[in-house]
Amino acid sequence: MRRKRMTDHPVAGALFVLPFFLVVVAFLVVPLGYAFWLSLSSRSLALGERFTGFDNYVRAFSDPVLLDGFLRVVVFGAVQIPVMLGIALAGALTLDAVTTRFAIAFRLIAFMPYAVPAVLGALMWGFLYSRTFGPFADLPTVVGGEPFDFFSTDLLLLSLGNIVTWAWTGYNMIVLYSALQAVPREMYEAALLDGATQVQIALRVKVPVIRQAIALAAIFTVIGTMQFFVEPYVMARFAPQISAGYTPNLYAYNQAFAYSDFHYSAAISFALGFVVFVAAYAFVLLTRKRRQS
Amino acid sequence: MLNRLRTFVAAVGLLAVAGCTGDPEDGTDGAGGPVRVTVWAWYPEFKGVVEAFNASHDDIQVDWTNVGTGPDQYAKLKTAFTAGTGAPDVAMVEFQQIPTFLILDALVDMGQYGAGEDEDLYAEWAWQQATDGDKVYAIPVDGGPMALMYRKDLFDQHGIPVPATWAEYAAAAEKMKAADPDAYIASFGSDGGWLNGLMWQAGCRPYGYSLTEARDRVKIDLTNPDCEKVVEFYGDLVERDLMATDPFFTADATAALDSGKYWTWAAAGWTPGYVAGSLKNTAGKWAVAPMPQWAEGEDAQGDWGGSTFTVTTQAKNPEAATVVARELFGTSEEAWDIGLNKAFLYPLVKDVASDPAFTGKAYEFFNGQKVNEIFVPVSEKLGDFDYTPFQDFVFGDLLDRCAEATSGTREWDTVLDATQDNVVDYAKKQGFTVE
Amino acid sequence: MNPARTRVPHLVMAAGMLYFLVPLLWIAIAATKSQPDLLSTPALWFADFNLFTNLAQLFREDGGVYGDWLVNTAVYSGVSAVGATLLAALAGYGLARFSFPGKRFFETALLGMIMVPATALVLPTYLILSNIGIVNTMWAVILPSLLSPFGTYLVRVYVTESVPEELLDAARLDRASELRIFWQVVVPMIRPVLVTVFLFTLVATWNNYFLPLVMLSDADLFPLTVGLTTWFNTGQQEAGTRVLFNLVITGSLLAIVPLVIAFVLLQRFWRSGAATGALR
User: Fold this and answer.
1) Which terminus of chain C, N or C, has less C-beta within 10 A?
2) Does domain A62-292 match CATH 1.10.3720.10?
3) Contact list, B71 vs chain C (CB under 8 Å)
4) Scanning every residue of chain B, which has its alpha carbon at the shortest distance from the alpha carbon of A149?
């Protein structure tokens, strides 16, 4: 019955979708197709351009610089994503349970970094990490320790992770908080009557209910992390260890804009996009399956 | 590339909107008015230079855009050449980048429009880098002959002699550390041009390339002893904690120069302007001395930085563009007045550099010292130096390996070996024969 | 809850506030300092108050180009956000309440589109747009920014949840045209999600760096992110270096303030919209 009603206006429906469809074709399908096309040929500086099929992909998947960068991003994500989402979830649960004015202020302030452009945020942290005049480097000296060198090899990934965590925790917190707000109170009133504590309710009732929201936030964070670019790009001016291939996306950028190898750059982008796509899609399917079972 | 793109776009059916934008091919506005020439450059205070040019030329007018500094502008040039459209008529290009753009077929030989006449105007080393045989690919503007900037007050106070050799420099570094454990002789600043200047001074000539001789032949010789000694000397200072590792021009490095944390800086002819503008606390306490030498009594010199004007192969009117490249600075008194006194460039025009107005200029920042008396002879002393057509890769890899060494994951004496291997490997993949 | 039980959460929130606020406090304080004070005075406390000197210099530097950047940023993000929201509203509604050939496929593909790394598209888009001759114009930034698969997805979910088909059928019985139904019935009902999509795309364009960096070469066309980074990089170069840290910092502060205000003011509108995307 319902399905039949929807088919009553196929032309109108298609027309509603058409403008968006055109934008998708022009700025997603065509560029992707073109990037793929580019990646199938090579242009070496001395020899010029020629069709090379999948050579660029063979090169990409055996390029130690690219693989190192990929591994670095995976390691980075494996630590940063759980930490950030953990904090965001804890914050969201706190906001859901505590409704004082202070909590409202916390919600607003936590969200503010989202409004700071990533390049400017990274520049800002670059100054804040400064040994000579940033406020944090000398913290350990209070207890007699060595001052932090946030740009040292040991701390660099942590420093970058902090920038990302600072920028995106509040955003994820709000998304999860919004999901919690949409949960009907009846779902845990019974538990309250049984004498469960707020913490127990949070962990046993609320978290399972917003599992999907958490999964979605995780997917978007994974996608963002795999594309990690702006923070290392800016931070490279402060920390010379950030090499040309520090992250895959930075490598793709340098291949194109520093080394003029647009073909290999397209192949890296395309391969990266493919890996991200497959990973994200697998994640979606996995979480869907779990929900069904 | 462009043709491929056309085919592709046509295949998708988007070419309908493409078309000529209606610009006349020669760059005139079509009504017999002046030829308009577009220029990309990032010199400070350049607006006045453009106005001076436009005021003194009726037939040619310059439209100037600052699209970003150094790498930012190069990235845009490279995209423009890949796309086949979008480049300016005239572009500011640093010396080490000239072969890079040459091999992209991006630069016009201005010799065919008479630019060869300018040879005697410019410092010899600069002209050599800007040209290839009788082909003129770039018109030199400014350079960076190197000299040693040092904290005269601190050296005097602790009775440390100004180093004349690098061995004395290392000895000065030890004495400095004894006098002030928090101080460093300088910073190993992670800067490709700076390290290159030091290697140049050490007699190291690691690269060779000539487009006219052979497009696909390049010389890479980073492991020769003259190059190795520089990296090992500096690596040793870093390992002994006598030299810091802050990248130049960061807030940390700038603050360190201005707080007594660094006692020297192997700097360049453009540095006086830079330091006078950004260091306030230590103004008047610095002085300039000639670069320490590798062997006593030598007079070897190097250069750090410097730039040129080039005419791009997308120029609508390359002849008019050549006039612009030659005359924006060239011998224009007005332009050089701005260049020297507001933008603090080191002039590569010989007459401007040797003019008493320049050499006799006393700098308050250097307590009245006429520092150009040191820089000018350096520029005159500089010899030939070549770059590769993929210098971004070379500097990038060299600095990445140095960063590994400063962070302890690599031995300093393997830095150049590793860079040599990576660069040769890269060059071969790009289709070059490596010598 | 009694006060003792909320003490721990409040302490935790206070720590969080400090963490999120300190960098913003720093930039607000740093913007009041002159270049030398910036490098030599304690980071989190005031030195001589130079905010107005900095602001005056900010709007004077390079012939007042900062003002252009501010206007450009507002135009790019405003136009992109309105356009993207409109497209998402139309398409999201079309997908949620109509059936047509290819819809299933398109819906499945939508999920995939969300996952395409945006930076991978910039370079090929540049090469295509340069062939059409619109790089280095505002359209090169605005047109690609109209693409918001996530926005469309959000609207689709929200319409499915909150616009009953019976209502649409009733309107159709009154012989209202489909477009009129959309404007007069659907749009008012989905306002929260539209505000959400609008703000998301507004922020995305306001904060975008890579796309305008590649597309634009004329400094007069730059948005704030590209312009300020250009100034920052000016201090990193060799010949002819100028250090503009104080301008970069003051300019950044001024670039952040409008968005922070917009979010604080509009937050109650968009939160209910954000929940929909999170629910599915």
Assistant:
1) N
2) yes
3) 233
4) B246
